[in-house]
Amino acid sequence: MSTTSVTSVSGASGPPASAVPLDADLPVVARRHPWRWVGVAVVLVLVAMFVHGLATNPGWDWPTFFQFFATRTIFSALWVTVQLTVYGTVLGFMLGAVLASMRLSSSPFLQVVAWGYIWAFRSIPLIVQLLFWFNIAYLYKELSIGIPFGPEFVHFSTNNLFGPLGAAVLGLALHQAAYAAEIIRGGIISVDAGQLEAAAALGIPRIRQFFRIVLPQAMRSILPNGANEVISLFKGTSIVSVMAIPELFYQVQVIYGRNSRVVPLLMVATVWYIVLTTLLSIVQYYVERRFARGTTR
Amino acid sequence: MIDVKGVHKSFGDLEVLKGIDLDVPAGAVTVILGPSGSGKSTLLRSINHLEKVDRGLVRIDGELIGYKRRGDKLHELREREILRQRSQVGFVFQTFNLFGHLTVLQNVVEAPVSAQRRKRSEVEPYARELLERVGVGDKADVYPRQLSGGQQQRVAIARALALKPKVLLFDEPTSALDPELVGEVLDVIKELARDGATMVVVTHEIGFAREIADTVIFMDDGRIVESGAPREVLDNPVHERTRAFISKVL
């Protein structure tokens, strides 16, 4: 006798009040997870202790924090940070896209050049590279355009060409390009080869194959890693404080150098970094959603 | 219409095509059969230069594919020229290869607009008509992933037809489909055959070959072993290898 027939028989006649119910009629009780509740309790206590400390520990010195948080000095420093991030990202990813396409090209020459670039700029610590650019005038006082080893037509003073900000953008962008190149290349090779083959079989022009067929699908895996890079560059701009560029971190250092209120001023920088990173994460969410078209049923 | 002469192709040390000659007249349907690894797909792919041949040549409608003859040498064409030639050849893949981020209609419209520079306003109604013809007229605005395999392959056929190609090439069009979906795709291909399209079909569907082929070609180990009308090749094969293959597949 099969189970289904038992159920249907009992369903038709209705179980007698005194009889033990059949297995198929028993209610289901979900598994309990008592340790989760213990975990929640522990975390809540720790968070409460931290918040309590923030409010009561005089070391945080909130009056000083609010005194500086929204001042003109901080805003202009924040603006420098944002500029460094935007220029570093845009130039870095543009150069990175070029490098990625070179590495994926069928030309061994282009492959080796791109590989060499990525090798070099991933090998040199960013801070070392930045200091090189900052001191470029020590190596080359003048740049000129002309025939190699021959006559020169135009001269620039290196110091006029790259101000400190220019040197910082250059260093950040060149560094970023090496990482962006690998992220973009990773995205492109993650697209099924059949997509390119179909595009080629249909005779779609080469540039269009890339921008219409491959890139939009590659964006799915480029975006999360790319956003990571942008956020990490945004915070990484604090490294250019070694070149005395008045970005956010340098500026709070200057202020606490004067008034010795180290912790509240570090908090000013921290909160601004958190606010802008949050904004970037929100942007990331919407951009990713846009590129997810056609990926779900 | 399609003229293949002395085509050789190797992948590394492995010679996949060992001198293929093939002539497909306009309006004829040629079905290529053979065990896997026999070079059927490579032959099909070399017809529209998705695969470069090492020796030999392919002509479609008299035009040399992939190369230009200068003196007594064949020079490979520039990519742009090759792409132009391909846009006159419809190719249907085993795994459909629809563009996943584009809707069904965008998939069909893409190549006529970008490769043949036809006007979108003129291509779109034609694309809808083609989708109607392959039986997915109501799916124009959904994404490929929302379709069954059979529907996806029919969209892929519409996409190939949208180029108004001179010839259609099918690379095992039903091999990736669930058995109950094979019929709907074969029906579409049969109808195209009845309308007089010039086609080369690589397949394992013997019954289908018998029904629509003007010529059946049996390939093994990089060579054409036998070719002729379906009645000859399928029912009275001369070669032992053809007999062995057909008895295994049937």
Output the CATH class name of the domain at 79-145 and 154-246 in chain A.
Mainly Alpha
Percent range of helical residues of chain A: over 70%
Number of helices of chain A: 13
Task: Note the overall shape of chain A.
Answer: flat
Q: Round the Cα radius of gyration of chain A to an integer and report it.
A: 30 Å
How do the strands of the widest beta sheet of chain B line up side by side? 8-9-10-3-11-12
The number of helical runs of chain B is 9
Assembly status? heterodimer
The secondary structure category of chain A is mainly alpha
**DSSP strand tally of chain B:** 12
| Estimated share of beta-strand residues of chain A | under 5%
Summarize the helix and strand pattern of chain B as letters: EEEHEEEEHEHHHEHEHEEHH
Membrane topology (chain B): Peripheral membrane protein
Family (chain B): Belongs to the ABC transporter superfamily.
Catalytic activity (chain B): a polar amino acid(out) + ATP + H2O = a polar amino acid(in) + ADP + phosphate + H(+)
Protein name (chain B): ABC-type polar-amino-acid transporter
Task: Explain what the structure shows.
The complex is a heterodimer of chains A (297) and B (250). Chain A contains 13 helices and two strands, in the order αααααααββαααααα. Chain A is mainly alpha-helical. Chain A has a domain at 79-145 and 154-246: Orthogonal Bundle (MetI-like fold), CATH 1.10.3720. A two-stranded antiparallel sheet of chain A has the order 1-2. The two termini of chain A are 41 Å apart. Mean pLDDT of chain A is 87; it is low at 1-12. With 250 residues, chain B is α/β, with parallel strands linked by helices. Chain B has a domain at 98-164. In chain B, 37% of the residues lie in helices and 27% in strands. Chain B has helices spanning 40-47, 79-86, 104-114, 120-133, 149-161, 179-194, 206-212, 230-235, 240-249; strands at residues 2-11, 14-24, 29-33, 55-60, 63-64, 67-70, 73-76, 89-92, 167-171, 198-202, 215-220, 223-228. Chain B is globular, with a radius of gyration of 18 Å. Classes of the chains: A mainly alpha (297), B alpha/beta (250).
